[in-house]
Amino acid sequence: MAVPKKKTSKAKSRSRRSSAWRIRSSGRSSCPRCGSVKRPHTVCDNCGWYGGRQAIDVD
What we know:
Elements: H1 10-17, E1 29-30, E2 37-38, E3 49-50, E4 53-54
Antiparallel strand pairs: 1-2, 3-4
């Protein structure tokens, strides 16, 4: 069985794990009906449309 010659420092092991802690910005798309920015695969907050039909009433 392979054994490491040197101890891995805390900085080295933590930097490897830090990629999982990164905060990624959520994706954005534009509504094809009103053009406002919205999250993909969700009902538009501005006009209430989703998938080519009115999903909710927005006043």
